[in-house]
User: Fold these one by one.
Assistant:
Number 1:
Amino acid sequence: MKTFELSKLLSENAYPGRGIVIGRSEDGKKAVIAYFIMGRSVNSRNRVFVEEGEGIRTEAFDPSKMSDPSLIIYSPVRVLGSKTIVTNGDQTDTVYDGLKKGLSFDVALRQREFEPDGPNFTPRISGILHFENKDFSYEMNILKSNNGDGSSCNRYNFFYEKPKAGEGRFIHTYMHDENPLPSFEGEPEVVTVSGNIDEFTDLVWNSLNEENKVSLFVRTVELETGKTETRIVNKNVK
């Protein structure tokens, strides 16, 4: 597969929607996670990321402007032992609870399907990192309508072992800005992962469409020690 510059993919797409990047740092010593949200409506744009335990949650920036909390208020990132879960919806909790019951990532997600927001039928995109023996592997999953047919759900799971230094995979909800919004197609895209956490955070945030971007979460996990660093950027700042 072709390797893309992440900044190029983002800057050339006004509305990828919500996106997940998972990969390994250039020096090979850290796992890298990024999750961003965008919005076209006032309700979608009225959000911020806030830390919650070892993860994050979305929160209304101005509660008086929140018209519908469903589908936009959730915990995108949660940690369970040696596993970190990142998703674009409340299926984070479905995976978390499923893992506690002994289910695998993809089996837990079989309880869910795309979001009920026809005619878009926004895909549910999810990722999980498995940390073990001072290294990691990861999975990505997408639940999407069958070419816009809301009566059928297509399910795809991708597993990545021994991630390559300086490389990641990028999955997002929409191919581009259109009405209705076309769902992501194909395998998660291969992208470059470069710089330290601050440089990578700046690269992603500055590449997102200025009008539509809302919030960004970036985390690195040092494989030798398990030490984490986290950055959160919110367009809405009090």
Note: The two ends are 42 Å apart (CA to CA).
Number 2:
Amino acid sequence: MRTVKQLVKQAAVTTATVALGMTLVSTSAQAQNQEQARVTNVVIVHGALVDGSGWRDVYELLIRDGFKVTIVQEPLTSLADDVAATKRILDFEDGPTILVGQSYGGTVITQAGTDPKVKALVYVSATAPEVGESTAQLVMSIPPASNNIHPTADGFLFENPADFAADFAADVPNKASVEFMAHSQAFVAATAFAAPVSEAAWHNKPSYGVVPTEDRIINPELERKMYRRAGAKVTEVKGASHSVFVSQPRVVADVIEEAARDTN
């Protein structure tokens, strides 16, 4: 028969073993929860007059760095349609997500970014409206260097291909690619530019802004003003055009990754 001393010793060993097991389980659960909370999803919303294909280089850099990237192909038929297209993609995301918008895409993410999966917003040469503001209202509040956008007979907007390179992508080295962009424009409904946002996600989500200093489509000073209002962390890219995501994809990818790291 075991003595009282032996029983006490056995109880102490058992208690220590259980405590260690509970600690290991807790540590494992914490690690699993941290991994689940880690932001690796990125959703990109392109701007007007272009489509998502221009984001190929940024996409590949992010994929190589371990991110899961999805690019929204908006119909550009109305702000409501473009927000719905973005939310449709967000519904497929399996966890916390960084939402990126370029140019008019910034207006789209401002509205769609209220989705609970969105943990941070990245504005790339983009509009960041306040509730009640529209893309057109903002852009013309501090007029850009260029105003070569023209209407079609049925109410859509485009840029004369002859002006596209100088206005939209002056620093993109591959001139053949720019020529292709000019002749494969995604026309946008004028009503989409005129529609005000009813929500502004940047009020409640961390925001980041990329300002290309030679942007001729949205005045860089307007971008700085909007980003300051949103409390965004700003990265300025000297000499870059409105198509900074094409000309300097590494810089843009770095800002997106920074947003993910800060959120983590």
Note: The beta strands are 41-45, 68-72, 97-102, 118-124, 149-151, 156-159, 188-189, 207-212, 233-237.
Number 3:
Amino acid sequence: MGRVSGLTEVPTFRRRGRATLGQADALSRLWPALGVAVDGAPLDLPALFGRHRPVALEVGFGMGEATVAFAAARPDVDVLAVEVHPPGLGSLLRLVEEHGLGNVRVADGDARVVLRSMLQPASLEEVRVFFPDPWPKRRHWKRRLVGAAFADLVADRLRPGGRLHVATDWRPYAEQVRLLLGGHPAYAVLDEVPWRPFTRFEQRGIAAGRPAVDLVAVRQH
């Protein structure tokens, strides 16, 4: 498909939040080694991680617990984790240090900029979007991340056989994504859902009567 450009998109909503002292300390100490500036400059992934391994892009990792669990369970996969919430950035960096992980890098900014301008076609093994903001009011649906333009862009950046994995506890959003991926010529939707870490956010959704729905699609040749 080549490099995608000219997407019509709504800028990512940046949540306000103040980092704790521990999170701020992790940001100041670890960002020079593990942080990635979302500036539109192309990334050299082997140089970034110091090795040639499959790369998973995680979009919106919250406080980072699931990211660390995945990275610890799959040391053979490098993880580029993107978030816009400063406390989450600091939290993930601190957890990465505590667990001694060398396969995680952290980016502060809009994941669509990373996908569109900083990654090459067929450079990713997986793209994970766990519990994106559902923007439940109809007038806000245009803010939802996983739409047609995003699906096109991810398809271009996944290698053949690579996966897009979306999880949400908002049923209308899940149905939107299911229809989108099911009708997209670049994807084949899977019935079997791969393992992913269980999160505190997910537990709150279950307690509120909103069980998670996982949607996984494979990039076709």
Note: Residues 21-34 form the longest helix (14 residues).
Number 4:
Amino acid sequence: MKKLDISNELKINEYPGRGIVIGKSEDGKYAVCAYFIMGRSTNSRNRIFVKQDDGIRTQAFDPSKLEDPHLIIYSPVRVLGNKTIVTNGDQTDTIYDLMNQQLTFEQALRTREFEDDAPNYTPRISGIIKTGERDFNYAMSILKSANGNPQSCQRFTFSYKNPICGEGHFIHTYIGNGTPLPSFEGEPKLVGINGTIDEFAAMLWDSLNDENKVSLFVRYIDLESGKFEDRIINKNK
């Protein structure tokens, strides 16, 4: 698979929707993950990321303008032991709860489907990072309708062992703008992971469409200590 420039991938797509990036830093010291949200409606744009004990949560920037919390208020990132879960919806909690009951990532997601936002039927995208012993592995998942037909749910999981330094994978909800919004197709894209946490975060944020971007979260996890460092950028301030 050809390695893509994620900055270019974002710049040529005015509406990738929500996206997850997971990979390994160039120096091999960090597991890297990023999650961003975009919005077209006032309700979707009225959000920020806020920190919570084990991750982050979406929150209405102006509570008086919140129209419907369904599908837009959730915890995108949570930590369970040595596992970091990142998703584009409340399936974060499903994965956390069921893995805590000894089910696998895939088994947890078999209890969920794509979002009930007809006619888009937005895919549920999820990722999990498992660290330990100075290395890590990760997996990514997408649950989507059958080309817009909600009668069938298609489930795909992609696993990555011993990630290559300076490389990662990128999955997002939409291949572009439209009505209805066209779902992501194929396997996660191979992309480069470059720079420090501040450089990587700035590159992602600057590459997202300025009108539609809402919030960005980036985490670098030290593979020796397990400690992590976060960056949050919110358009609403």
Note: The first helix runs from residue 6 to 11.
